[in-house]
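Listing 4. Sequential folding, example run.
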Amino acid sequence: MGEDKTEDKNESGLELTEGETELYDRQIRLWGLESQKRLRTAKILISGLNGLGAEVTKNIILSGVSSVKMHDVQLVTEEDYCSQFLAARQSLGKNRAEASLERARALNPMVDISADTQPLKEKTAEFYSAFDVVVINGQSNDELLRIDAICQDLGVKFFASDVWGMFGFYFASLQQHSYVEDVVKFKEMEAKPNQKPKFEKVAVPFQREMNYPAYSAWIDFDVNAAGYQRQLKKNGPGVVLLSVLQKFRTTYKRDPSYKTREADIVLLQAIRDELAPNSTLSDESLGVLFAQISPAVAVVGGVVAQEIIKVVTRMEAPHRNLFIFDPDTCAGYVQAIGVN
């Protein structure tokens, strides 16, 4: 496995310019100068400039990273109007990454932003080695497995993410990840004679390390396992729904479409009954999976960007390791996959 690229590259003594310090003043006060310096050196790849990709891109650009490479081979369609705000309406029929460049660059002129339209299948390990974090949207499990394996060898952090209608997820494959976590302790204050001792809260930073399984842990996950059934009753069938959607994509080489909604719901029902015949995944849940809806994109994209910032700054523990946004409850939860 390659060396973790986020571990040492940010300790180079880089100083922010006066303009950067002014622009990122609020963030520096929020998470500290050293964290902002680490962000300033980070190079991020975001593949899949659908609505979710646009949301992640926006948040990452605003955070003040070094560069963002926007990758996509798809063209802008009317379906993108639901949530893809970086591509203008007049860009219909143009490449999504290239159509998003102008508005993306306007968000933060201090970030180097570029577009790439070459298919991922043609990308070699050398391409991925240029990044600290790789985010892949809209790909099949086979492709996600292939890219994650490359990132594992390179020590590059990997996120797989997606949104279908009002349902969304991300999986974090971060390998051995080190971070600093503040632990609150009580410190006894000096008291006057004959007075009861007083205590104040003090945040003490501690170095932590956590192992994150590869994406293959999700592929090997059994949604029908007895141990998971207890969690399913607590969290709902979101993990089952993710399995159904990914099986649909693998089988039909596409996602459910609003143009063939009724027929696709029947196909989804068949996959559900095959993968998890005893699940509580309802037919109603299968009816809200068409086109990426802005509220779901905003939630999932915001969480993905937040986790990328955690990874780069090495402040706080990233979620471990599957995040689900459930349209039935309009809430998200984290499911540990392949974690001992």
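-- end of first protein; second protein begins --
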Amino acid sequence: MVDYRKICYPLITIIGIPVNIAAISILCRGKCGLSKCVTHYLVAMAVADLSVVVIEVLLYQINEIFRVLPALKYAPFCFVHYALCNVTLDCSVWLMVAFTFDRFVAICCTNFKSKYCTSKIAVAVIVTLCLGFTLKNIPFYFLYLESSAAYVHGYLMCWGKQTLPTSEMFEVFYWFDRLLSPLLPFFFIVFLNAMTVKQIVITSRVRRALRGRSNSENQRDPEMENRRQSIILLFTLSGSFLLCWMTTTLVFILTQCLYTDMETSIRLYQAQYVGTVVQLVSCCTNTFIYGVTQKKFREQLKSAVIYPVILVKGFLR
């Protein structure tokens, strides 16, 4: 039987690292026609996705399959690494939530928009989320130390992400962790997008009615056109996130809420296996979404691709 992990995870690494580096470098130049607030969130999301690809996919998943870096199997490196995997995933997920909330405020809360949708607030939110989830995942170091370590020939070694301890304290922490990722983010993104769509529909009807009264139906509406790019970007990013995390979320809910026999448990395990791969694919999709939805991003990306060719031609002349 073919082990699809040997194909999927290297592909995610080969694609995910360069596309996220390209997104970071292009967005940091600030020439994509996006506000500084939006740019900060997109750059932070790209950095988080790049971290997931490197720490979770390359250093954990691929290392588990091909044993590229055996040193990561020894304590304390492996326990720190496991905790970092959780930090990067949490940051990647909640930065998407933060960006969705920012766009919700910009579209639905016009009175609050000028105070919240600013560069300083965006930086503060990003830093707070990253620091908060770093602190939140420190207990994972000790959880893995207790549940995944054993001495082999005098060396303390890790055996992978084994089942966590079953004491009440650990059980509460486990549920708290699952609640923060992916259950609450999934709910928040669905709810915020639903409210945003509702506000867009109401606003569009009102503006069409007002423009109809002024007999200017055929004229362009600059305000709606300016908001269109932001709305398309929001819905494509959040839609991609929801699709990629849907399997993992549903499997977790079914596992916790339903009584399962052996056959069902095996099928849920297989679904979780697929869900993990698809979930990690989400770290590669954002750059392609920027390219599809943002004309200026495409232009910057094209210039970045062509520039080395121009340099080589100039050198050869």
